[in-house]
Amino acid sequence: RYLRTLRENEQREGDKRPIIYLDETYIHPSYGVSKCWQSDEVSGVYKSNRAGQRYIIVHAGGRSGFVEDGLLIFKSHSKSGDYHDDMNHTNFMQWLEKQLIP
Questions:
Q1: How far apart (Å, rounded) are the C-alpha atoms in residues 59 and 26?
Q2: Following DSSP, what letter does each residue of 5-41 receive, concatenated?
Q3: Looking at residue 84, what is its pLDDT?
Q4: Residue 29: how many CB atoms within 10 A of its CB?
Q5: Half-sphere exposure of 49 (CA within 13 A, CB side)
Q6: Residues in CB range of 53: below 8 A, 6 or more apart
Q7: pLDDT digits (tens, 9 = 90+) for 22-53
Q8: Of 2, 24, 54, 75, which residue is the least packed, with the fewest Cβ within 10 Å?
Q9: Are the CB atoms for 9 and 19 separated by under 8 Å?
């Protein structure tokens, strides 16, 4: 059904609906970018040994870029280690209805 809807949207003439994707992730403030371009063995982001607060990041975007005012960043309050406990149904719906859609 999803692929059929995408195909039907692409076949519309002049009245195509924008396709918006959304996702969430997290980061610790102690993470940092290493100088990976100087090494063939090290790439990406390294994790510090320091424990710290985790931040949840949520955004939405599509072919035209990110949705204006769609960025949400907040401190995690979960102790479980799974950031999905923070971005639960309640927080998602609040972001969707009060920040992303209006």
A1: 12
A2: HHHHHHH-SS-PPPPEEEEEEEE-TT-EE--GGG-SS
A3: 75
A4: 11
A5: 0
A6: 28, 29, 75, 76
A7: 999 888 776 666 544 445 665 665 555 556 68
A8: 2
A9: yes
